[in-house]
Write a structure and sequence with these properties.
The protein is of the alpha/beta class. About 35% of the residues lie in helices and about 10% in strands. Mean pLDDT is about 95; it is low at about 1-20.
Length: about 350
């Protein structure tokens, strides 16, 4: 979740070629991608997990799935004018209870649709804790950012090809079950693949292949995010139907990134932004994203068990005290804004026609 300076690597993209994955459904044409953008219009929203869940398993397991909190908190998002949420899944929740997992996805989608919000689901993730376990999830570590967030499938498991058949069944079952579901606007196949020696690249390639072998009518993507990961970034930009990226920089860097990505002639989604200590702010960055017609999805809606009001690596609040400047998130529990001027800025952009 670091800032990506695309200008440093564009020349690499221009003069190198990467063989696309071979699959039954080819990558969308530029025309198809731009028709999708025209149909959906400009979208703004948040990365979403209910405040009562510390991680993806606590969100999706039957015992801790919390539709009432989800309904309430998506209602607050609707009140801001938000119309899209990015939401992480986890293969262990599917593996434990396939019909129940998909039923809960359907329930979640119903709640989101009630609030006029479309969903960007995420399958795999290389961030935070490597080991995941079904059952009761840990309590948050006081003052620690994302102390319980889970990689999926985890490292080194993401390089273990013996588990790939199970992961393939997971991806294909979920995507085929919701193949024509208009409540889902796009599938995000892999969040921040970031292992050394390209350890995650094989799984990244495979998930694109699996996704294209499904009947899914929605586009697919995987967000680029770090300049050093050239092989990952090159594959993602050359195989995503819609280009998505992460940028936690200020408004100037956000605009520079957008300009560098125009080379692909495809719609853009900034699927992670807004970190106050990095000067990535609603008041300054969101207007740039709107003006440039880039879908804007900030990190964090309601402060809760993920502890994302604390910054990455912050060790100064291990007593659980509130930082003077929140890192992420918009609302306190109860729907009280952290900063009213931010809520006003979000409404101004998201409700603008």
């Amino acid at each position: 979740m670091k800032i990506l300076n695309f200008a440093l690597i564009l020349s690499f993209f221009l003069f190198c070629s990467f063989k696309p994955v071979e699959n039954p459904r080819p990558r969308w044409t530029v025309e198809q991608a731009n028709e999708w953008a025209k149909t959906n219009g400009w979208m703004c929203g948040s990365n979403f997990i209910p405040s009562t869940a510390i991680n993806q398993l606590e969100m999706w397991q039957a015992d801790t799935f919390d539709p009432s909190t989800i309904d309430q908190e998506l209602g607050w998002a609707e009140g801001l004018g938000m119309n899209v949420m990015r939401v992480f899944l986890h293969h262990l929740a599917w593996e434990q209870d396939k019909p129940g997992f998909k039923s809960r996805m359907d329930k979640f989608l119903d709640i989101a649709a009630k609030h006029h919000i479309k969903i960007m689901f995420v399958f795999f993730d290389d961030c935070w804790l490597a080991k995941s376990k079904i059952g009761k999830q840990p309590e948050p570590v006081l003052g620690k950012h994302n102390s319980g967030w889970l990689k999926d499938p985890g490292i080194p498991m993401n390089a273990d090809t013996t588990i790939f058949p199970g992961l393939e069944k997971y991806v294909k079952d979920v995507m085929n079950s919701f193949a024509k579901d208009k409540r889902i606007v796009i599938w995000d196949l892999y969040n921040e693949p970031n292992t050394k020696n390209n350890q995650s690249l094989n799984l990244l390639k495979k998930v694109f292949q699996w996704a294209r072998e499904t009947k899914a009518t929605q586009p697919i993507t995987s967000g680029i995010w770090k300049k050093e990961l050239k092989d990952y970034t090159k594959f993602q930009t050359e195989n995503s139907d819609i280009i998505s990226y992460h940028n936690y920089g200020d408004a100037k860097l956000q605009k520079k990134t957008i300009d560098s990505l125009r080379i692909f002639n495809r719609p853009l989604i900034c699927s992670e932004y807004m970190a106050r200590k990095k000067n990535s702010l609603f008041q300054t960055v969101l207007p740039v994203l709107h003006r440039e017609n880039v879908t804007a999805i900030n990190w964090g809606l309601v402060s809760g068990k993920t502890n994302t009001i604390y910054a990455w690596g912050d060790t100064t609040h291990r007593d659980g005290s509130e930082p003077a400047l929140w890192f992420h998130d918009i609302f306190r529990k109860g729907g009280i804004p952290y900063k009213q001027e931010e809520v006003d800025a979000i409404r101004k952009e998201c409700l603008k026609k």
